[in-house]
């Protein structure tokens, strides 16, 4: 059963819809990321679940209960914010005790739970410190402990890693995932960072201008984007525009400036389409390589990026494309070399519409 359900939620500020007919469910123990560019409505959605904003239309359920008339303090949700929001004049223990006191947890139980939760977030022995005596990562773990210790139905985390530097962010991302799993905690995380969403979430709700663009597991969102926006927002891509004409119900071909390119059967209707080929699925090929499509190109430059080499090449119609080669000491064609790039039908994603 779903722990959280949003049904056709709309929120307008002035005339404009910040959140536009959004529906999704979150299952028990699931970690869901609300992902999208700035202003797409992620935070407003989270604030409506917390009860800080009211939806103009639609309904929100936590368990069986309709949240329509519930104030924030009447919803059993745990909150973690970007800026930690710890009380600076209170010790770590007092910070963690705060929510439990408000919920009437007995004093002895509060003491026991503080010790336990600090162990679980790997911060034993800091109960008497003030927030100012902790690093950013430690403060965020205390904020996490403070929310988790009240045993909320749902944890709501708003950009929890944004204030940390890149290395710490990566480390804490792993820790947060482990901690949330340990507590079997149903969680929603707002982020604009696709890597964070991919690394943390079981499923991603990708938002664009207040609407849901796609809901999928991270891997599926990357491998099977359904729209140009989704393909563009997650990961890198090469684009080839054209017109799709299917032959009956089976496979079809896309007429492009580079010639006719065969595509797999799918749900996209005939007409203008864009082909998306991920850089790791486009390769330098020779006559022997088993690929379905071959495109003539001229190498422009290489970017060494550690385990992979990114090769930028120009196709005959002027399109610049990127392909990845494993960095295993093999000699690569120098800039200016004529090469053939190839890909398989299965690795060519057909998306409706033309890129602007
Ligand atoms: N209180 C408000 N009054 C008026 N407009 C608002 C208010 N809160 C949000 N908005 C508008 O609603 C839209 C969605 O905002 P929201 O904060 O939900 O986006 P977001 O995806 O969380 O963006 P960010 O990543 O920048 O926080 C934006 O256009 C924003 O300007």
From TrEMBL:
<keyword id="KW-0067">ATP-binding</keyword>
<feature type="domain" description="ABC transporter">
    <location>
        <begin position="4"/>
        <end position="234"/>
    </location>
</feature>
<dbReference type="InterPro" id="IPR013611">
    <property type="entry name" value="Transp-assoc_OB_typ2"/>
</dbReference>
<keyword id="KW-0547">Nucleotide-binding</keyword>
<dbReference type="InterPro" id="IPR008995">
    <property type="entry name" value="Mo/tungstate-bd_C_term_dom"/>
</dbReference>
<keyword id="KW-0813">Transport</keyword>
<dbReference type="InterPro" id="IPR027417">
    <property type="entry name" value="P-loop_NTPase"/>
</dbReference>
<dbReference type="GO" id="GO:0005524">
    <property type="term" value="F:ATP binding"/>
</dbReference>
<dbReference type="InterPro" id="IPR050093">
    <property type="entry name" value="ABC_SmlMolc_Importer"/>
</dbReference>
<dbReference type="GO" id="GO:0015697">
    <property type="term" value="P:quaternary ammonium group transport"/>
</dbReference>
<dbReference type="Pfam" id="PF00005">
    <property type="entry name" value="ABC_tran"/>
</dbReference>
<dbReference type="GO" id="GO:0022857">
    <property type="term" value="F:transmembrane transporter activity"/>
</dbReference>
<dbReference type="InterPro" id="IPR017871">
    <property type="entry name" value="ABC_transporter-like_CS"/>
</dbReference>
<comment type="similarity">
    <text>Belongs to the ABC transporter superfamily.</text>
</comment>
<dbReference type="InterPro" id="IPR003593">
    <property type="entry name" value="AAA+_ATPase"/>
</dbReference>
<dbReference type="InterPro" id="IPR003439">
    <property type="entry name" value="ABC_transporter-like_ATP-bd"/>
</dbReference>
<dbReference type="GO" id="GO:0043190">
    <property type="term" value="C:ATP-binding cassette (ABC) transporter complex"/>
</dbReference>
<dbReference type="Pfam" id="PF08402">
    <property type="entry name" value="TOBE_2"/>
</dbReference>
<protein>
    <submittedName>
        <fullName>Spermidine/putrescine import ATP-binding protein PotA</fullName>
    </submittedName>
</protein>
<dbReference type="GO" id="GO:0016887">
    <property type="term" value="F:ATP hydrolysis activity"/>
</dbReference>
């Amino acid at each position: 059963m779903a722990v959280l359900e949003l049904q056709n939620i709309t929120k307008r500020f002035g005339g404009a819809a910040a959140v536009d007919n959004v529906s999704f469910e979150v299952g028990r123990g699931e970690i869901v990321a609300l992902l999208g560019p700035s202003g797409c409505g992620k935070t407003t959605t989270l604030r409506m679940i917390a009860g800080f904003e009211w939806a103009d239309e639609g309904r929100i359920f936590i368990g069986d209960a309709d949240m329509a008339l519930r104030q924030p303090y009447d919803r059993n949700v745990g909150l973690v914010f970007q800026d930690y929001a710890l009380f600076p004049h209170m010790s770590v223990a007092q910070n963690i005790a705060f929510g439990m006191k408000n919920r009437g947890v007995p004093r002895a139980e509060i003491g026991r739970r503080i010790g336990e939760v600090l162990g679980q977030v790997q911060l034993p022995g800091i109960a008497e410190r003030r927030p100012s005596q902790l690093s950013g990562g430690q403060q965020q773990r205390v904020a996490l402990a403070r929310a988790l210790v009240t045993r909320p139905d749902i944890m709501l985390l708003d950009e929890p890693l944004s204030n940390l530097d890149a290395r710490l962010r990566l480390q804490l991302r792993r820790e947060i995932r482990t901690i949330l799993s340990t507590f079997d905690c149903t969680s929603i995380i707002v982020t604009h960072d696709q890597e964070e969403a991919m690394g943390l979430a079981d499923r991603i709700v990708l938002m664009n201008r207040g609407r849901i663009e796609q809901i999928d597991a991270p891997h599926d969102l990357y491998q099977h984007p359904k729209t140009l926006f989704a393909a563009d927002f997650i990961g890198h891509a090469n684009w080839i525009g054209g017109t799709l004409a299917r032959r009956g119900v089976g496979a079809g071909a896309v007429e492009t400036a580079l010639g006719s390119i065969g595509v797999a059967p799918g749900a996209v209707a005939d007409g203008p389409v864009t082909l998306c080929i991920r850089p790791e699925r486009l390769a330098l090929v020779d006559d022997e390589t088993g690929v379905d499509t071959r495109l003539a190109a001229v190498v422009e430059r290489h970017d060494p990026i550690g385990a992979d080499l990114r090769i930028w090449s120009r196709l005959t119609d002027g399109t610049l494309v990127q392909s990845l080669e494993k960095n295993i000491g093999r000699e690569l064609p120098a800039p200016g070399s004529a090469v053939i790039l190839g890909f398989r039908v299965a690795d060519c994603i057909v998306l409706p519409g033309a890129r602007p």
